[in-house]
Amino acid sequence: MAEAHQAVAFQFTVTPDGIDLQLCHEALRQIYLSGLHSWKKRFIRFKNGMLTGVYPGSPGGFMVVVVSYMSYNKYNQLDPSLGKDGRSLNDSVSKYFHFGGVLVGTGLWVTIIMIMRNVLKCLLSWHGWMHARHGSVSLSTRLWMLFVKVFSGRKPMLYSFQNSLPRLPVPSIKDTCSRYLESVRPLMDDEQYERMKGLTKDFEKNLGPRLQWYLKLKSWWASNYVSDWWEEYIYLRGRGPIMVNSNYYAMDFLYVFPTSIQAARAGNAIHAIMLYRRKLDRAQIKPLMLLHTIPMCSAQYERMFNTSRVPGVDTDTLQHMNESKHIAVYHKGRFYKVWMFYDGRLLLPREIEQQMERILADPSEPMPGEEMLAALTAGDRTPWAKARETYFSRGKNKQSLDAIEKAAFFVTLDDTEQRYDTNNPVKSLDSYAKSLLHGKCYDRWFDKTFNLIVFKNGTMGLNAEHSWADAPIIGHLWEHVLSMDPVKLGYNEDGHCRGQTHPNLPGPQRLQWDIPSECTEVIQSSLTVARTLADDVDCHIIPFSDFGKGLIKRCRTSPDAFIQIALQLAHYRDKGKFCLTYEASMTRLFREGRTETVRSCTIETCAFVRSMIRDETLLKVAAEKHQNMYRLAMTGEGIDRHLFCLYVVSKYLGEDSPFLKEVLSEPWRLSTSQTPLQQVELFDLVKHPEYVSSGGGFGPVADDGYGVSYIIVGENLINFHISSKHSSPETDSHRFGANIRQAMLDLLDLFQIDKKDMK
């Protein structure tokens, strides 16, 4: 295996004539270029921080205001120094004129910025635009959008709107309790409901207002009253495995195979990811805008790279590095550190492919304990934390672990083949999903923000850790990679990356380990826990191509609402009952917003499912109810985050609330999420609908429940990702998949629209 011997900067020997010092000019050159790259990056960050801090102002705007102000003073013979020098402007130019003009002009410029920023914050606090019918925009909404555009400034960078976003509001106790009772009514009989109604009213009258006061205080002080507690208590304090239970996956193209050469696919993908990181560091990524006008929070992007989840005995932490110039790679039980820069520049795709080829050709065997080391990240958190402190806090083990945890991201060159097989579509897709979700339980570093997994036949995918951000953030990166890979970067006719290899490129560095037998026992114990969990997961993927968004819109119904109602119908047929349903909705209209729950199993939806008459009226009522629930969740009027934070406050105060305890212990037996396509402009979905991600999925939240993720691809395709557990006699992912397909078709039949019209 080639080692990076060129990194040695100098050598010296002692001779009778003295010390003979031999400098390696190439190494010194690389050190100089590396330092230059770091200083450039610091300068860019400083500059971007300044531009973001004064947005919607700009240096050009500053010059216009100051020059205009000074010109006005000169024309009107005004003295900004207020005559302190005792001379008239007619006699001579005041020595304070320029300084005073710049000072007052700067103050005027800052005042204009603050006014624009606060006006924009007030404008963004209005959400009436959400209630407009699809395809119709009222005059008031048009005027509002015009004002938003005027006060939003020009050419915003990724973080430009952070200071203009409103804070997430705290709903009233009365509204939250009322909506909660409404959400559980279809799931309880009369006796259960009356009991819960009594608990709710008692909480609303007694303990609730006290907890609400503390929560209001936090909302005034903190940027977001939910997000920090959500990250800590829902994710970082969990002591069970994050593999399957928390981490999620994203798939490659379903029907397109750009190359079958593993190293080449890795070369293009890694280069595309590094280009994205460079744009992220420079804040050159456009902030996501709803309706091309309404900005969304970008705070979650900050920890995408150079970040790792670090285990603790009681709680984990997120370790983020400002700078990382290497990636960590795993192949057949060996770990490698691969530098991403040489000659002061980012490695090109063919050069990265060259590094991957070296790893694939390495004949060396794993060191004792090395092959299954990553199983520590797949098992329970406390044993991993104790093992990390005991066996990885010093020496070569610490150095190697630092190389992984401080890497930009993690790459697995998988030695298996995964791909959609038209001859065996069900088995091939199920195997593909399970491999991305958990693999062999020791060939992914589940603590990294994301793992790029490249299979032996060139197929690839991602496995992402959940605590640092939500799926749309990693989805934004993945869309960039897939849009760059086959078209913009491309491959030669022989399937290799375009370009040439580098003759002097130092090879990857093999990480060294000294793992004692006691640590190997901990690794095996974690692997046993992880394998038990992984073997229990039942994954099923459905590429639903009977119809898609185009036909649903002809029904004058929201595609998301249509699918959610179909899931309720499918679940009722699958289990013969309704259940508490979780649908993830974003709250990124607010500063540092993450998610809220849409309780999709409503009274209206249940009424429709029970009837299933050939009348579209009840379906439209149920769909409108779902849309209203979604709007409430997006605008800070949801139920579950408020109740969660009230529960956290009650624990801090040492107060026991039977109501909150029971509410937060209710299992989500149907957990759903839509994977949004955020950068439609990157893909030509009319000519090439196949050139887009087939979405991703996650494990079931409840032992006897289902996890369902779906992505609406173009106008005629919807991909469903279903998960459950084999150990539950109530669930079967394939059976549920069949029910989903039939429910979608049955719902469409209610509208009596001929699918052939859309062909």
From TrEMBL:
Q: Which reaction(s) does the protein catalyse, per the Swiss-Prot or TrEMBL entry?
A: (R)-carnitine + hexadecanoyl-CoA = O-hexadecanoyl-(R)-carnitine + CoA
Q: Work out whether the entry's keyword set contains Nucleus.
A: no
Gene3D superfamilies, per this entry? 6.10.250.1760, Chloramphenicol acetyltransferase-like domain, Choline/Carnitine o-acyltransferase, domain 2
Question: What GO molecular function annotation could you give as one example from this UniProt entry?
Answer: carnitine O-palmitoyltransferase activity
Q: Which EC number(s) are documented for this chain?
A: 2.3.1.21
Q: How does it sit in the membrane?
A: Multi-pass membrane protein
**One cellular component (GO) term of this entry:** mitochondrial outer membrane
> InterPro entries attached here?
Carn_acyl_trans, CAT-like_dom_sf, Cho/carn_acyl_trans, Cho/carn_acyl_trans_2, CPT_N
Give every Choline/carnitine acyltransferase domain span: 168-742
Give the residues annotated as active site. H466
Any stretches that span the bilayer, and where are they? 50-72, 96-116
Its annotated compartments are: Mitochondrion outer membrane
List this protein's GO terms for biological process: carnitine metabolic process; fatty acid beta-oxidation
For the Carnitine O-palmitoyltransferase N-terminal domain, which residue ranges apply?
A: 1-47
Asked if the record carries the keyword Transmembrane, the reply is yes
Q: In which pathway does it act?
A: Lipid metabolism; fatty acid beta-oxidation
What protein family does this chain belong to?
Belongs to the carnitine/choline acetyltransferase family.
The identity of this protein, by name, is carnitine O-palmitoyltransferase
Q: Which organism is it from?
A: Sphaeramia orbicularis (orbiculate cardinalfish)
